[in-house]
Write a structure and sequence with these properties.
Distance between the termini of chain B: 32 Å
Helix content of chain B: 40-55%
Radius of gyration of chain A: 15 Å
CATH class of chain A: Alpha Beta
CATH architecture of chain A: 2-Layer Sandwich
Strand order of the largest sheet of chain B: 1-2-3-4-5
Strand content of chain A: 25-35%
Helix content of chain A: 25-40%
Oligomer: heterodimer
Order of helices and strands of chain B: EEHEHEHEH
Structural class of chain B: alpha/beta
Strand order of the largest sheet of chain A: 1-2-3-5-4
Largest sheet of chain B: 5 strands, mixed
Shape of chain A: globular
Largest interface: A-B, 26 and 23 residues
CATH topology of chain A: Heat Shock Protein 90
Shape of chain B: globular
Order of helices and strands of chain A: EHHEEHHEEH
């Protein structure tokens, strides 16, 4: 599939960078014909993936987060990778209301699934987690 | 407001309720500030009614929703009430998907929220 545009960035697991990643994703998505509502959804999904990497991947310890944004003819894809603790049971972590933190609602993956068209999560304990999520661009082809 | 900035939070006491007005984007970066500001204002004022005005909030994710839920649990445990006012459509959608609107009432203005108490 031909790549029309791509951004790769690496940033530290600092909560200030959640907003920076989100704003960058919104700007990247704005080159498509997606609606403002679609872009709002992408912002939430990105925010959740990066927040998960900071909170769960690195447990608030310093680490790097890689964020790759790719635009093809019919898809906008975001890949967020951390090299942190990893998730022992991805299926369990993706369940609604599952959270390892009592002050959190366990909605991160729920929002990512609700607002993106495709979501895959690969994780290995002690090695890290990769979240890959895409939004289909129906209007791009027609 | 660009992402990464801290929230602007102001609090005011009115008719026995603590009104918290928030400006900015409610994500992981602002959760500690939000939680600490509300908790200390509640402790100082000793009121049981909390109205969170989201008029200036253009973005919220599960981190922001989680802190609101935490304040709801805290104030409900002492027999109080938490209400939300002035929600933008994009924020209302997130509150809806999160299920928060099933337990917390939303009003179109602070005065409407106050009148309901």
């Amino acid at each position: 599939m031909m790549i029309k545009n791509q951004i790769k960035m690496t940033f530290s697991s600092n909560s200030e960078n959640v907003g920076i990643a989100r704003v960058t994703a919104a700007a990247f998505a704005a080159q498509t014909e997606l609606t403002l509502s679609d872009i709002d959804e992408i912002k939430v999904a990105l925010s959740e993936a990066v927040s998960n990497a900071i909170i769960h991947g690195y447990k608030d310890m310093p680490g790097d987060i890689e964020c790759e944004m790719t635009l093809t003819e019919d898809m906008l894809e975001f890949v967020i990778t951390d090299m942190g603790r990893g998730i022992a049971d991805v299926d369990l972590a993706r369940q609604p209301a599952y959270s390892s933190d009592p002050e959190r609602m366990g909605l991160g993956f729920v929002f990512m699934e609700s607002f993106m068209d495709v979501l895959t999560v690969h994780s290995a304990v002690g090695k890290g987690t990769t979240v890959r999520m895409s939004k289909k661009l129906f209007n791009e082809q027609h | 407001m660009i992402g990464g900035c801290t929230l602007n939070i102001s609090t005011v006491l009115k008719q026995g309720a603590l009104i918290v007005r928030i400006d900015g984007e409610m994500d992981l970066n602002g959760t500690d500030q939000f939680r600490n500001t509300i908790d200390s204002a509640l402790e100082n004022s000793q009121v049981k009614y909390l109205i969170i005005s989201l008029k200036g909030v253009s973005f919220i994710d599960s981190s922001g929703v989680g802190v609101i839920l935490g304040r709801y649990k805290k104030i409900s445990a002492v027999g109080g009430k938490l209400l939300i006012a002035n929600v933008k459509p994009q924020v209302a959608r997130i509150l809806d998907v999160s299920g928060l609107l099933r337990i917390i009432k939303v009003f179109s203005s602070e005065s409407e929220a106050l009148d309901s108490l």
